[in-house]
Every structure is written in structure tokens, then in C-alpha cells.
Amino acid sequence: MARVALCLSGQPRSLSLTTNSIKKHIVDFYNADVFCHAWHSYEQKKYKNYYNESDPSHYGQYSFDSIVDICENYQPKSLTLEHPCFLENTKSMIYSMCKAIKAKSDYERSTTRVYDIVIRTRYDLKIYEDFTLPEIKNNTLYLKDRTGGCGGVNDWLTVGTSETIDKMGTMFDKYKDSKRITQPCPEGIFLEFFNSCGINVEVICNNFNIIRENGDLVV
């Protein structure tokens, strides 16, 4: 059986609506090891949309219950919590993603065992079926055929070999001083980065969506 790792990152929101589905269709289905990075504010502040603070679709707030939920349901090999240190949602997202990938890589080095498949996603993803995959090729990333309003490639979930996902884990270092990473379009940065690394992109047809705290789906 393939050794599978799941890297989860970002704001731990919509957990009551998504955790069971991720656990059932990825963690339990593949007996996957989980590596987490999460933003956490001890003041339990509300999440903000930096690009549109007047946006009425409030996404939830930091809470201790969310951290307990992550620990109890995912039993991660690694969980790193950091106080939010970036205002821009895109920069925050890419930083957190790279930290979760690094935790996976550090664990591989400490155990001298490399995962065959790595799935990188976010906490507010709802999955509707067992996450079956095609044969995973090196230097290829597999993702959803949904680009958002500014082009690029989908940033909700990415699947690849450990080596290819490790390349993805260098994205923050490449863009941390660039104005691009402060803008509301991670999809464009993802595509630009993949092209610069010579990473191929293929579409997977698995059924999943982002879900907001109020139950609204992002389609």
C-alpha cells in the first residue's frame, strides 16, 4: 500500500462542517499521516478578509475548540500553531502551506522513510467521496479544474509525489519579498511558480468544495 501524507494548513475554519469528510475520505481511506500548520489567536479574534473588510460573509473566528478538534480527529504527527503575522490572506495562506510541507519533510528525514503520495489542502475543504487518485507521476501536480476569477490554477488541494510537493514548499521563499504575494490572487502565483519549476499540472475529478462557516459552498 502507498504511504500517504496529508498536509493541512491555514485558518482552521468550518471544522464542524469539513473535518469528518477529510478524515473519512483521505485520512482513514489511506491511513494517512497528517501534518498541520494553523494560525491561532489566543484573543480568539474573528477572521478577516483583508482585501474586503466590508464583506458581510464572515468566515468565523479563532477558538481553542478548533485546536482540540484538529488534535482529536487528525492526531497529527506534527502541529504547529502561530499567531497571525501577515495581514494579506494570500501571503498568510502560502506561508502556512509551506510550513506544513516542511513539517512533512522534516519527519521524512528523521524517519528515513519517504511518502509515496502527499495531499496538500486546507481545513475548510469538504470532500464528498473517497479520494481515489490516478497513478501519480513525479514532477506533476494534480488539482481541481477551477481557477477562480483571475486565472491561474486551483489552490484548494494539490496532490503529488513527496519530491514534487517539496518543490511546492519553496513557494513562500520565492515570493516573500514580492508584491505579488500581497495581492488577492493565489491562483496566478501558483501557476507562475509551477511553470518556473517545470512542474506539470493535471486535473483530477474528485468531488470537493470549500465551505464557509454558514454552510455556503464556494463553487
Helix and strand arrangement:
Blueprint: E1 4-9, H1 15-30, E2 33-39, H2 64-74, E3 78-82, H3 89-111, E4 117-122, E5 125-127, E6 140-143, E7 157-160, H4 162-168, H5 171-175, H6 186-197, E8 200-203, E9 208-211, E10 217-218
Parallel strand pairs: 1-2, 1-4, 2-3, 6-8
Antiparallel strand pairs: 4-7, 5-9, 9-10
Helix pairs in contact: 1-2, 3-4
Compact overview of the structure:
By secondary structure, the chain is an alpha/beta fold.
Strand order of the largest sheet: 3-2-1-4-7
- Point out poorly predicted stretches: none
The CATH class is Alpha Beta
The protein's oligomeric status is: single chain
Series of H and E elements: EHEHEHEEEEHHHEEE
Q: In one word, what is the shape? A: globular
Which architecture would the CATH scheme give at its second level?
A: Alpha-Beta Complex
Structural class label = alpha/beta
Number of helices: 6
In what range is the share of β-strand residues?
A: 15-25%
Describe the protein in words:
There is one protein chain. With 219 residues, the protein is α/β, with parallel strands linked by helices. It has a single domain, classed as Spore Coat Polysaccharide Biosynthesis Protein SpsA, Chain A (Alpha-Beta Complex), CATH 3.90.550. It is 34% helix and 21% strand. It has a five-stranded mixed β-sheet, with helices on both faces. Strands 5-9-10 form a three-stranded antiparallel β-sheet. α1 runs parallel beside α2 and α3 packs antiparallel against α4 (162-168). The longest helix has 23 residues, at 89-111. The mean pLDDT is 88.
